[in-house]
Amino acid sequence: MSVRELITAIRRHLVLLVGFLLLGAGVAQLVTSLQPTTYESKASVFVSVSQQARGLDQAYQGTLFSQQQVRSYADLVTTPKVTAPVIRDLRLHLRPEKLAKRLKVDVPVDTVLLNITARDTDPAMAARIVNSVTHYLITAVADVEGPQPGRSPTVRVQVVRPGAVPKEPSSPKPVLNVSLGLVLGAIAGVLAGMLKEALDTRIDVASDAAAASGLPIVGEIAYERAARKRSLVYDTDPLGMRAEGFRKLRTNLRFINVDRPPRTIVVSSPLEGDGKSSVALNLAFCLAQDGARVVIVDADLRRPTVASSLGLVEEAGLTSVLSGQASVADVIQRAERGSTIKVLTSGPVPPNPSELLGTKRMQSLIQELRADADYVIIDSPPLIPVTDAAVIAPSSDGVVLVVRSGRTKREELRTAAKSVDAVNGSTLGVIVNMTKPKHDRYRYYGGYRRNENKPRLEDLGTAPSIENTPTAPVG
């Protein structure tokens, strides 16, 4: 995973990352509250040779001897010879080995110092313990290293810094614990996001579809709640983001091949429920908005929806023409909302849709419709469950694949694209449907809608509007 992909994954799973950050901070705060408040008091003793050295060599030898003895006295601090009398002196309800765990001994390198630290929940008791330990350590060293015949020199231990009553607790450390919790939470959040990114193969944004299929993204259609009941954008919000998505789709299709732009377009999807029929209808109406002559063909002979969406008669249509029961002129209908849009509904549902769509009569019908229209938009069934769309693909200028954001999986898109390639069809690109709108775009379109009632330039007599300029049919 590249750095850019990692950043994209983090932004996509920002809620997950924030959740782990809060969880890490919460756990750290909980652990901090459960930890007892303890204090540490530190004392230092100095170890030296008691007899006076007579030369540099003897002084150096005495220093080396003291350094060696200091390491031995560090182990002596936590033995019962020191801890037992401390317990008796301070009347502690502890065993010698328990008190030893509250002591920490440190010997700085190349020194004759011995640092002793005592830990307790009472700051005054921590100071009393460490001072008592140093006292009984000196006594224990005197017993062990006392003057003996034939043994010289004698070691002397003295306190150079007694233990003081601490003012601040040594633990817990809330700031350190919470900081550590935030760091661990951030790491866990990033790892969880990467794991979810690896396991979740659904397409969320256009870059996912492009990476999965290697096909160009020709359109992104934003999600609008009103589209559940009314599929046509002109019945919901003609100035909204969804309508603008279809206008961009119209422009992109025209620029796929400038010399020979696609005129016969099959609209399909990997699986059912991706919104292909809605995309086909809105694309046709968007093309007709420029004055182009458009024919919509409902080639989904299994679950047709075009007739019901436009309120047209569906008893006769495509299957009637393919079976020879009627001609195109007899069954083709004009959409009420578009004067330049004609609709060839599916007609009666046949028992053999794939065989019917693969006939030469279907190929001739497409050419016949193409001759009298600027665009022929064919709504076909999904590619993975059935082969209907793949059968029609070679007779068209290309197929556009509609995927649904947050639902269609990358492997499903790859499988659908391979189905088109297997029949030598051309895939024009991918349309990502029902994407999540960005907030900055919301602000732009909100301002655009607020300004739609303001006087336009042509109303003021300054310049003609491009939108009102007559457009020649594309073809």
TrEMBL record:
The cellular location(s) given in this protein's UniProt record come to: Cell membrane
Q: Which spans does this entry mark as compositional bias, Polar residues?
A: 465-475
SUPFAM superfamilies attached here? P-loop containing nucleoside triphosphate hydrolases (SSF52540)
In this chain, the stretch annotated as Disordered covers: 448-475
Q: Which InterPro entries match?
A: Bact_polysacc_biosynth/exp, LPS_length_determ_N, P-loop_NTPase, Wzc-like_C, YlxH/NBP35
Q: How does it sit in the membrane?
A: Multi-pass membrane protein
What sequence ranges are listed for the domain Polysaccharide chain length determinant N-terminal? 2-90
**Pfam families under this entry?**
ParA, Wzz
Bias type Basic and acidic residues, positions: 449-459
Keywords associated with the record: ATP-binding, Cell membrane, Membrane, Nucleotide-binding, Transmembrane, Transmembrane helix
Coarsely, its chief localization is membrane
Q: Which family does it belong to?
A: Belongs to the CpsC/CapA family.
Q: Which PANTHER family match?
A: FERRIC ENTEROBACTIN TRANSPORT PROTEIN FEPE, TYROSINE-PROTEIN KINASE
Task: State the name under which the record lists this protein.
Answer: Polysaccharide biosynthesis tyrosine autokinase
